[in-house]
């Protein structure tokens, strides 16, 4: 007969946490401690927690007002109060941040001593301070120059005394009349690599004055790679391959790939013995790399005495729960039929003292009981194994 459920402690499931403004909930569930069946489930409401505000005071600045921000540390909800007006700037005496030049205004920058904000005001341009340079004839080895005026303040060149006709320094130079070409020399050399061409400038200078007379860029072809090969043998789990690496720049590529060799398992060792109720484990080791794998050894099962032996025998012979239940039901039905016939008087030999039929009746009742016990025992065993 069924033993009845045993209630366990209630557990929480499907929890939904309460927030500051909304209720939460969870299911309070009770399960049977024997079979795990759910016995009851009740939804419990958890009240909203309400806001938990923290206050942060923002002081007023020169340009913005102050205020207090109240923020919920749980959900982030916030509001502002206690607002105050901006303070206004407090400027220092100012610093010259851009000097005035001959032709452009300078800048003086003032900084607020409270917030660091700045403002600027212009400083008027100073005008040129011109120096006159006399004309000089060029020679064979030395350049000359035209007459010009030079501002000592800003370095600007002028072709007139009033400083209105601006020229470049190159405009003032009169090149030397004769040059003597020297041997070409290499400059700006960039070495060639395995994959990229190099270059250099071939330059010719005047041997008298040193002036550059010509410059030509020369291309140096790329050298190409110089590879060395390293063979990586295959393992149980990884493919083999050959790596070719350039000894100059380190460039590399892979070829000659072949498949992994696969594991070579030994005959295995029992690392966990099987018991009547628990599976065991047999461990196999790869003789090449030492990796392991496992197989399950099925539980041995239990053998009980007396009525339990009969129960196991009946369960084995029937091979399934459905056949065992059918046998037990059929046996019980036969027993009840025989008892009914004897009670109704159709088999009068029982009332006349026939011992053989009384013995048959007793055997049938015994087999019926054994069948019911066998069914119950087999069901408990499946639950325990499962």
Give an overview of the whole structure.
- The protein is an alpha+beta fold and about 375 residues long.
- It is built from 3 helices and 24 strands.
- It has helices spanning about 305-320, 320-345, 355-385; strands spanning about 10-15, 25-30, 40-45, 55-60, 65-70, 80-85, 95-100, 105-110, 120-125, 130-135, 145, 150, 155-160, 165, 175, 185-190, 200-205, 210-220, 225-230, 240-245, 250-260, 270, 280-285, 290-295.
- Strands 10-12-13-14 form a 4-stranded antiparallel β-sheet, with no helix packed on it. It has a 3-stranded antiparallel β-sheet with strand order 1-2-3, with no helix packed on it.
- It is flat.
- It starts with 10 loop residues before the first strand and ends with a helix.
- The model is unreliable at about 305-355 and about 380-385 (pLDDT under 50).
Give a short summary of the structure.
17% of the residues lie in helices and 35% in strands. With 386 residues, it is of the alpha+beta class. The strands form eight sheets. Strands 10-12-13-14 form a four-stranded antiparallel sheet, with no helix packed on it. A three-stranded antiparallel sheet has the order 1-2-3, with no helix packed on it. Strands 4-5-6 form a three-stranded antiparallel sheet, with no helix packed on it.
Question: Helix and strand layout, with pairings?
Answer:
Blueprint lengths: L10 E6 L7 E8 L6 E9 L6 E6 L7 E7 L5 E7 L10 E4 L7 E6 L6 E6 L6 E4 L10 E2 L2 E4 L5 E2 L7 E2 L5 E2 L10 E6 L7 E8 L6 E9 L6 E6 L7 E7 L5 E7 L10 E4 L7 E6 L6 E6 L9 H12 L2 H24 L10 H31 L1
Antiparallel strand pairs: 1-2, 2-3, 4-5, 5-6, 7-8, 8-9, 10-12, 11-15, 12-13, 13-14, 16-17, 17-18, 19-20, 20-21, 22-23, 23-24
Helix pairs in contact: 1-3, 2-3
